[in-house]
Amino acid sequence: MIRPLTQRRIYELEAMFEAKQEDPDALRLLGAELAFRSVPRATALLAKVKRVLGGAYGAAHAGLDARQALSRALQIRPLSQISPNL
Q: Do the Cβ atoms of 50 and 58 come closer than 8 Å?
């Protein structure tokens, strides 16, 4: 499975969150990556991502595991459009 953000450190993911708060596709991609992580900063960031996406995140991903959520996020827009500097 492809995880384009797997090599990113948590501070990079936090910066992505700050820069892309208005981009739901980028936030879904970020959330999918964070779902694989269990350290406190990652779980806290995932909570922020879910909060920003609000009900749309829960409704869109209800019953989806992280792999399915990542697939859905990647199908919406190419990664280069979501975060061209990755």
A: yes
